[in-house]
Amino acid sequence: MFCLSRRRIGVLLLGGIADPAIMPSCTLELKIIPNAPRDEIAGWLGAVLKVKIHAPALEGRANDALLDFLATTLGLPRRAVTLVRGDKSRRKVVRVTGLSLAEVRARLPAVT
Description:
Elements: E1 6-9, E2 12-13, E3 16-17, E4 21-33, E5 40-45, E6 48-52, H1 61-74, E7 81-85, E8 91-97, H2 101-107
Parallel strand pairs: 4-6
Antiparallel strand pairs: 1-4, 2-3, 4-8, 5-6, 7-8
């Protein structure tokens, strides 16, 4: 069973594999500005998060830099942040595994 708000992940215990635990996850809509002077969160535009990325939009470099930056900012491993849609677009959808949307919003720096 698959739901956009939750994902089943197996948990490895000493005696073997236990029943799958349910980990929170969410999707974020992003507007990306590549070739920025530095990586930073520019703020929320309604439900869309605006992110500036220093890397150029060539050969997926900006996508890799975006996912690394989001994982570092949220305090998650890189594998917990994946690109769902928008590989060659400035409008992207990213899945964050391990945090709910409320937790993601709380961990992002406040932008005024």
